[in-house]
Design goal:
The protein has 234 residues and is mostly helical. Helices cover 77% and strands 0% of the residues. Helix 1 runs antiparallel to helix 5.
Length: 234
Amino acid sequence: MLSLFISFLLAHFVGDFILQPDKWVKAKLSAKNQLKYLFYHIGVHGLVLLIVLQFQFQYWLGILSIMFSHFIIDWAKVSFQNKKNEILLFFVDQLAHFIVIALVVYFYEPYTLDTTIISIPKLMLVVMAIIMQTQVTAILMRVLLSKWKMKDENPNQAGKYIGMLERLFIFSFVVMNYWEGVGFLLGAKSIFRFGDLNNAKDRNLTEYVLIGTLLSFGLAMLIARGYQYLNLCL
């Protein structure tokens, strides 16, 4: 089962990401050339599937199913895509492809999911920890740092999302007991921020960055340690 799933997944990645030129991606957004380049893309995808599966024609139904579903999913994506939902549709599109692949693999090699290995309380604890590391901590830091609020705050909230990724990395490092990773992350951030702080004459900015970094790292490690403790208790 796993071998077949990897084969279909490899074909998807090669066909969707490597053998799909940017020209085709842009052309599919044009109503004039949409169908032509969609057919090009699906044709390449079908050929890659055949090669990866070593021309084992017993999988012909699965190959046709993936090609047909791929066409429908991509057509729906380019038909409804705009600047506002572009990122969301990308992930929805990929998720739909993965679901189809999983169903095709199940058709050939049925598999069962052992639900006994899934602990609902532990799963909920992971979800809670992720929420705390991202949205909860972001709001908490915004409140605590309101005194140092910068005038030229980035409207796209890039700093907020950088902080979320930073805390998720720290969470992973602490859970894996890889504390060197936390030190590396802190050192890398210091290097990237050195230019801003070195050129800035605003003491307020320096205080904002230092306190924000200490808060972000401190809260991330505190939540990670709390997660470890509660995970052992479950």
